[in-house]
UniProtKB/TrEMBL annotation:
It comes from the Eukaryota. PANTHER family: REGULATOR OF CHROMOSOME CONDENSATION. It holds the Pfam family WD40_RLD. One of its GO terms (biological process) is protein import into nucleus. This is RCC1-like domain-containing protein. RCC repeats lie at residues 1-50, 51-127, 128-181, 182-234, 235-293, 294-363, 364-418. SUPFAM superfamilies: RCC1/BLIP-II (SSF50985). InterPro entries: Ran_GTPase-activating, RCC1-like_dom, RCC1/BLIP-II, Reg_chr_condens. PROSITE patterns: RCC1_1, RCC1_2, RCC1_3. Residues 3-413 form the RCC1-like domain.
Length: 437
């Protein structure tokens, strides 16, 4: 209930369209700016230009990196007419951004990336060190943080055994790290082959320490909840993990999709390997890829409209169940935006929540689609899940050039730069209104 970071009032419990966070403005931050953020299942990390890390959200597993246990639980007295299930009662320390405590002072190094799983937070420093806190969970409950020694780590701790790391990629309860030599390390829960290898039950706790994968020459990594990706310097895209909805980009050897289907080791996605993929985002059962030329490809689960493809334009590879109901699109398929189809719209970044998706145009407009019940799309009240990419239109963001976007379990976060030239901002709006016909 605290995922939005807008404070404890009942009016902040459910927000249907993008709203500026009043605690993270330049004025509140002493003229500093937000430079990065990461969304976990129910929490968010934010990095400002002074190197401070802010956190908010649920803190049951210590993911916020600060003590919230003594905070007063407030009730919004201005909403006395609210119904019982809308009466606020949010923890002020969890629902309001607060600084992560105990960050190490590292000489000549700064934080360059944040990462958030469902139950763990991590930081990457410019010297290649990784710090983390929280815990990993598995099907049976808490797996832990460090072997049998630490179940829940509540303050930043250096991950030993990792050095010269250049990128992190968080899943639901696992983490990937890429080093400067192109080697990928994985740790956390591996019950769905997220770690790229079979994990024996008696060795389950050994997965809490990073181990190098059988991958080399890698330049980029990404992860969904239970599946992962890596791109090598020859632009081949590898995938592994859970694949029951084709979220890994293909069917099994029989051309089928089955519950519990797994890709047990890194396998090339042939459809993507010649597209010059620059970025990949993934949710629980779906995935997206952005090319260097600004095109977006989507694949995976369909029944909550995660892939953004209308039913009348589904590819032949679409997988249907025994009743003829569309279940998944297992082959990467190019996304079309706007009423005119091939319209020249290009994108600069993409993002996924558990069952919803975003693409951001090269001039900072956001399109959203997928599961709509929790308002994570930012489109306001809609009657059903959103089948096709739909532009977010609201007062708070209409003059913003969005630079960053991310989705959590049931919420989303974006960051942008205000377009001060009003004529330029209005021209941009007119461009997309014409595009959408």
């Amino acid at each position: 209930m605290c995922e939005l970071g807008l404070g404890p009032a009942a009016s902040t419990k459910e927000v249907k369209r993008p709203r500026l966070n009043p605690y993270l403005t330049k004025e509140k931050l002493g003229n500093e700016s937000i430079v990065d953020f990461a969304a976990g299942g129910m929490h968010t990390l934010v990095l400002d230009s002074a190197g401070n890390v802010w956190s908010w959200g649920g803190n049951d597993g210590g993911v916020l990196g600060r003590d919230t246990s003594g905070a007063e639980v407030l009730k919004d007295l201005d909403n006395a007419s609210d119904s019982d299930d809308e009466d606020g009662d949010l923890n002020v320390a969890e629902s309001t951004p607060g600084k992560v405590e105990g960050l190490p002072p590292i000489a000549d190094a700064k934080i360059v990336q944040l990462a958030a799983t469902d139950n763990l937070s991590a930081l990457l420093y410019s010297n290649g060190d990784v710090y983390a806190w929280g815990s990993f969970r598995c099907n049976e409950g808490i797996l832990g943080f460090l072997r049998d020694e630490i179940k829940i780590q509540r303050s930043p701790m250096k991950i030993t055994g990792l050095k010269n790391i250049v990128q992190l990629a968080p899943g639901k309860d696992h983490l990937l790290a890429l080093d400067s030599k192109g080697i990928v390390y994985a740790w956390g829960n591996g019950q769905q082959y997220q770690l790229g290898r079979k994990i024996l039950e008696r060795h389950r706790y050994k997965t809490l320490e990073p181990h190098a994968m059988a991958l080399t020459n890698i330049k980029y990594i990404a992860s969904g909840d239970f599946h992962c990706f890596a791109i090598d310097h020859d632009d081949r895209v590898y995938t592994w993990g859970l694949n029951q909805f084709g979220q890994c980009g293909f069917t099994n050897e029989n051309g089928e999709l089955e519950d519990g289907s797994l890709v047990s080791k890194p396998t090339v996605i042939e459809k993507l390997s010649n597209l010059n993929i620059q970025e990949i985002a993934a949710g629980e059962h779906h995935s997206m890829a952005l090319t260097a030329s600004g095109d977006v490809y989507t694949w995976g689960r369909y029944d909550m409209k995660e892939v953004g493809i209308p039913q009348d334009k589904l590819p032949e590879s679409t997988f249907k169940d025994a009743h003829g109901k569309v279940r998944a699109v297992p082959v990467p398929t190019k996304l079309q935006v706007g009423a005119k189809g091939e319209n020249g719209v290009k994108f600069k970044t993409v993002g996924c929540g558990s069952h919803h998706s975003f693409s951001v145009t090269d001039d900072g407009m956001v399109y959203a689609w997928g599961f709509a019940d929790t308002y994570a799309l930012g489109l306001g009240p809609v009657e059903s899940d959103v089948e096709v990419p739909t532009r977010i239109v609201n007062t708070a963001t209409k003059h913003e050039d969005i630079q960053l976007i991310a989705g959590g379990g049931q919420f989303s976060i974006s960051g942008g730069i205000k377009i001060d030239d009003e004529d330029k901002a209005e021209d941009r709006l007119e461009k997309y209104e014409e595009l959408e016909g």
